[in-house]
Design brief:
Elements lengths: L1 H6 L25 H7 L8 H15 L9 H6 L20 H14 L3 E8 L5 H11 L3 E8 L10 E8 L3 H13 L5 E3 L4
Antiparallel strand pairs: 1-3, 1-4, 2-3
Helix pairs in contact: 3-5
Length: 195
Amino acid sequence: MKASLKAGKVTTLPGVDTIADGTAVKTPGEKIFPYIQENLDDIITVEDDELVVAFLDMVENHKMVIENSGLLTVAALRHLDVTGKRVVSVLSGGNMDVITMSSVVQKGLIFRDRIFTVSVLLPDKPGQLCRVAATIAKELGNVIKLEHNQFVNTNRSVAVELRITLEAFGTEHKEKIMTALKEQGYRPKLVRANL
């Protein structure tokens, strides 16, 4: 629709790729287009990542399940200056399967630094895992997954890789955990969270 408004006529896109499948159309409707031209000042587009954050916010803070297309108005609010204004976001539709919902929640937690994965190299000696775990526990990090790779180096006594997926309260808490690991002599490296 945004491309059509810009062109001044109904325009067909070569493709659409979005998690907002209810609004993922290549060609807007011919009958509605004149009304859109006449009554809208602008169309705001949002990225899928913004929809993920909006979904997590609605579930976590408002206890509402709204499908991605129905959350477009909420995600768009971040692009507007609504300070001191009364704004109504129309929320519609809960047509989302549980697997998609789970995926969106996990991605949202990763975007908000509530879940992250860190890689540390340590010698393959007894007690090393306890030492890392104690450092994380002291900072109130919650370990939700561990991966221990003994084959990252040909000499295991020099280094094995430990990938730790953690739950945190947000970015500031994540940074505190990373700093604590550095202070203990580890060189933590953030890697892609893999749940």
